[in-house]
Specification:
mainly alpha, 3-stranded mixed beta sheet, 3% strand
């Protein structure tokens, strides 16, 4: 039977798996299934079999009622019954696209307010839109705070802008943390780990509520605008599933069936990835590969419908109108045409994959230790707002003085993923000047790029899991793109030093450009994200949709596969599965391998509470039930003859 709110918490144990007896130790690596479970009404499990049978029974009853109606009424009623799922997912796609657009626009505007505001078009215009028509690195329509608040030719303008940038960044972070921690603690973090638990068949109250959706959206805007090393891509999956939970209540076909609700949630997760990356195919594969425990064939079609709806609505809302191209679904989407890669580049692509696997394993290891410290050390539990203020302060101080860290992450990826020849025409700004510099300046800016990658890697480790809504997709992509661009720049320098007539660059003769560091940035971004999340196929497709070129599937897979192999050598769990384990969520990881010679008897209790078949009265049975909190009691023939008969549930 279903465990409802009046039932005991999800412990699911029989008396044969009861309390530990003195002196009875568990084999290393095992624990009883009743340990570390929450003592509240959360994490009760749904009954998949009963819900699917209820859905089939309701369908038979509907058909029986429909056969007795007027033919026209029956056709309309049957159409409405069948179209409900598609309508729900259409609404989810529209709402997710609108929410993502609002979050992106508002976060971009608040983030630019740390530098100043648009004096020509109004303070409500972000810097990207304000400087859209500027053809030089200096934007006349934009004014920094020092230009607005200090006298003309005043001294210390740099330090004044620095101070305002840091103060506003720390303020945004503190407000985001306070709002989420006070009004909806479930909105903290990425939300992907909790969503995986829900899709696995467990219930987390208010995790997908309207209040969580509202508070998470608001907190995410402030957190992204603050300059913390986090992204909105992971939380968008949580937000999309919240919309699915809201709209599903409007349709009786899904309202009371928990298993069918999770089909909607799986499709909604695809919409969240589409809103984050502009990759509908990758979103469907992400839901299948990383999120869903139950993914029937019809859910794949509905996921694709929801993802396509989201992509179309994003194009309609056009939240990236301020970028160099309005024909893209995300700001850092690029389109490579005509550029190809050479066979000898497979070696540096593989090297990037190895670096991504090592970086991902290191990230998971350190972040897991930090998570345990935050849960175990009283100071962190009592001073979480101070921790956020400190992280934000360090992030802002490190970012402002580095051209590769002060700009928004989407803006940075847009530059890292683009060729210099295109950047100089479409985005003539200081970031382009730094990234495409030559001579001695190139070495200086490459060192700044290396420092930005290392700093963002460290800050992402300490930020992910802190008291704010936070995703790790975007900062991990930025770290990998910086490393990839550095490797590509190194290969380019090697090519320039030996020339086209030397091995292995003989194939470059007659070509204007042979090595494209921007392609290395895309490959490096995929490698580091694969090493952190252990995604493979869905990640390669997402990056493929971001670049728009089928020629680059081989470089992407050459990097993604070694990244997963190297990461798996240090642990099979990706970052989200690791967080599920650390938080004690009831989730069965299908990738977990148990290498032990332990037997079932080692996991069971020897002091079993039993009910005798022939020597019990109703009063004694009721007394046994009242004294123990087990959910099951084995019935045996007698105290001596302990052959199992039926069981009382």
């Amino acid at each position: 039977r279903r465990l409802d709110s009046s039932s005991p918490p999800l412990r699911g144990r029989l008396s044969i798996m009861g309390e530990d007896e003195p002196g009875h130790t568990m084999p290393q690596g095992y624990r009883r299934i009743d340990q570390n479970q929450p003592e509240n009404t959360d994490f009760i499990t749904i009954d998949w079999f009963t819900d699917r049978e209820a859905a089939r029974r309701a369908k038979r009853q509907f058909r029986a009622r429909n056969a007795q109606r007027n033919k026209f009424v029956g056709v309309v009623s049957n159409w409405y019954h069948n179209v409900q799922g598609w309508v729900v997912l259409f609404l989810v796609g529209v709402a997710t696209a609108l929410t993502g657009s609002v979050i992106h626009q508002t976060a971009g505007w608040l983030g630019s307010m740390k530098f100043g505001y648009c004096t020509e078009h109004g303070f409500w215009v972000s810097r990207t839109l304000c400087c859209l028509e500027s053809s030089t690195t200096v934007c006349e329509a934009w004014s920094n705070w020092s230009e607005i608040m200090l006298p003309h030719n005043a001294r210390g303008t740099f330090w004044f802008d620095y101070f305002v940038y840091v103060v506003m960044g720390v303020t945004f972070a503190l407000v985001a943390s306070f709002v989420c921690a006070t009004f909806s603690p479930l909105s903290l973090g990425s939300g992907i780990s909790g969503t995986k638990v829900v899709l696995g068949g467990f219930v987390i109250r208010k995790f997908l509520s309207g209040a969580t959706l509202l508070i998470k959206s608001l907190g995410l805007i402030l957190a992204v605008a603050s300059g913390l090393s986090l992204g909105l891509q992971g939380p968008m999956v949580h937000i999309a599933c919240c919309w699915g939970a809201i709209f599903v209540r409007l349709f009786p076909k899904y309202k009371t069936n928990e298993a069918m609700k999770r089909e909607i949630y799986s499709a909604s997760a695809a919409a969240g990835v589409t809103a984050a990356f502009g990759a509908p195919l990758g979103g469907v594969l992400f839901s299948l590969e990383a999120m869903s425990s139950y993914f029937p064939h019809k859910t794949m079609w509905r996921s694709f419908w929801c993802a396509i709806t989201t992509a179309v609505m994003i194009r309609y809302f056009n939240p990236y109108s301020g970028s160099s191209s309005t024909a893209r679904l995300v700001q850092f989407q690029v389109f490579y045409r005509g550029e190809s890669w050479m066979w000898y580049e497979l070696a540096p692509f593989t090297f990037l994959g190895v670096l991504g696997g090592l970086g991902g394993a290191l990230f998971i290891r350190i972040n897991a230790k930090l998570h345990e410290v935050r849960r175990g050390v009283p100071w962190f539990r009592e001073n979480r707002f101070f921790e956020i203020a400190l992280i934000s302060l360090v992030s802002c101080i490190m970012a402002f003085s580095n051209v590769f860290a002060s700009e928004g992450q989407s803006f940075l990826l847009e530059h890292l993923f683009s060729h210099c020849t295109e950047l100089k025409v479409s985005l003539p700004d200081r970031l382009t000047d730094a990234l495409c510099s030559e001579g001695t300046d190139a070495w200086r800016f490459m060192l700044l790029l290396m420092a930005a990658a290392l700093g963002r890697f460290i800050l992402t480790i300490v930020t992910f899991g802190a008291q704010v809504p936070s995703g790790l997709f975007m900062p991990t992509l930025c770290v990998g793109a910086c490393v990839g661009r550095l490797v590509g720049w190194t290969v380019t320098m090697w090519h320039l030093s030996v020339g086209d007539d030397q091995w292995p660059f003989k194939g470059c003769m007659g070509r204007t450009d042979c090595i494209f560091p921007s392609l290395y940035a895309v490959v490096g971004a995929a490698a580091f994200l694969a090493g952190t999340t252990r995604l493979t196929v869905s990640l390669a497709v997402i990056m493929l949709e971001l670049t728009g070129g089928l020629d680059y599937i081989v470089p992407l897979m050459v990097a993604v596969v070694p990244a997963k192999w190297v990461g798996d050598a240090f642990g099979k769990e990706g970052i989200f599965d690791k967080l599920i384990s650390l938080q004690g969520y009831p989730h069965i990881n299908p990738n977990m391998e148990l290498d032990s010679e332990a037997k079932a008897a080692d996991l069971m209790s020897r002091n079993v509470v039993m009910v005798s078949k022939h020597h019990e009265t109703l009063a004694s049975v009721e007394d046994t039930f009242s004294k123990h909190s087990y959910h099951g009691f084995p019935i045996v023939e007698s105290e001596r003859d302990r052959r199992w008969v039926p069981i009382i549930i």
